[in-house]
Structure formats: structure tokens, C-alpha cells
Amino acid sequence: MYREWVDTDVSPLPADWGRTLTALGVAGVVLDVWNAQPGDLAGLVAARLAVECYLGYDPALWDQGPAAATARAHAAAAAAHRLGYRPGQILWLDVEQWPQAGAAATARACVAWVTAWATATRAAGYVPGVYLGEPLAPGLTAADWPPAGQSPIAHWWVGSPAAAGAVPVHPPRLMQTGWNVPLGGVLVNRDLRWVPDITAPPWPDPPAADRAAWAAWLRAVADRVAR
Question: How far apart are CA 150 and CA 191, in angstroms?
């Protein structure tokens, strides 16, 4: 089943924003590890919200290969430490705006970059998660990623129905359903978080076998949340 989450790159956050989210039924927040301040994290935790962090994308780095990915992972881990975000928690990588032309415009280049980032992130003590948005690397499919048990990537976050076919694990841990929505005075993206031990309504499990049906289901959920 799913719980409502949000993600945001806004900082500093209003002092009472965590309580506002709790009152609205939001269960957790994903913060931008570059922008967030320790007070943001502390305020959300004090409001009994779950908190994770993500690393925003930098299209200038996509064509610089695995060495750039490793350096990016080290910098993100250092930022997480400064924020007070402890090792052992999920650190997400935002993968979108992938080059559509040039040497990096292949599924193989994307997988090599992301895998190198995930390996370095895991070595730094964090649990690597990957957000896939648009545009994807040309031709990227779920089959391009290392198989289960051999991949350093622990979790997946789908940024749009179009990205569903490139995610190798279903259901993903997070699904983005709304973009640039004001909530409690803060601009957020809205998400659904997979929680296996929650059995209450309002959302049924998505269809797992048929990716086209899964994408249609996600669109329907996004419409429902928007209403």
C-alpha cells in the first residue's frame, strides 16, 4: 500500500511546516541534500515525519563518466553528514535530463554512471536509491540494469509513468504524482511511498506484471491525488 510523501528543494523551511504536513496526513519528506539545513531536518523529525534526502541532477556531469559519478557521491555523502543525516539511510540520486545526443546518449553510459554513483554511495555508508525522470537515456529499459543481487542500487523512485518501463523492481519504493504544488506555503512535488506493512485504503496494489497497465494505474493515482 502507499502513504503520501512530498519532496522539496526549498530551504529554510517554515518552523511549523512539519506540523502542517502531519495535520494534512503526509507521512514523510525527501529533502535536497545540497539545500537543506540542519534545522529543516530537525523540525521535520520533531513533527514525527520520516525524512530522506536526495541528490539533485546536474546535466553537465552526465557525459563525464563514472569518475564524475564517484566524486559526486563523495560530495553528497559529505553534505549529508553536515546536514545531520546519518549513514544507514537512503540517499537518492535524481537521474533526468539525460543527453539525447553524443557519446553519453546510450543506456550503457547511463547505467555505468548510476552504478558507479551507487557503489560509491554504499561505500560511504548510505543506502543508494535512484529516481528516474525524463528524458531517459535513449533506449533505456529495465533489462539494462544489473540483475537483482548484483546491483548496488537498493531502491527505485519513478518520476513519471513514462519512466516505469525503465525501473527493474516493482512496486518501486516511491512514485512521483504531482509537480510544483504549494503545500503549507512550500512548493513541493507529491509522491506515494510503498509501505508493505500497511493494508488500509485508499490505494490498492498496482498491477505488477503488465508495465503498460502499471503506467496507466500511476496516471489514475496521480489524477486521484490531484483531486
Answer: 28
> Which secondary structure element, helix H or strand E, spans residue 206, and what is its range?
none
* Cell digits of residue 44: 521535520
State residue 125 phi and psi, 5-degree precision: 100, 0
CA dist 128 to 36, 133, 197, 199, Å? 19, 16, 22, 27
3-state secondary structure (DSSP) of residue 148: coil
**Domains, the chain, ranges and CATH?**
2-226 (3.20.20.80)
DSSP classification of residue 79: H
Q: Treating both helix axes as pointing N-terminal to C-terminal, what angle do 38-46 and 65-83 enclose, rounded to 10 degrees? A: 60
Q: Provide the residue-wise pLDDT of the chain in tens; the chain has 227 residues.
A: 678 999 999 999 999 999 999 999 999 999 999 999 999 999 999 999 999 999 999 999 999 999 999 999 999 999 999 999 999 999 999 999 999 999 999 999 999 999 999 999 999 999 999 999 999 999 999 999 999 889 999 999 999 877 888 999 877 899 998 899 999 999 999 998 887 654 444 555 565 556 667 667 777 766 665 54
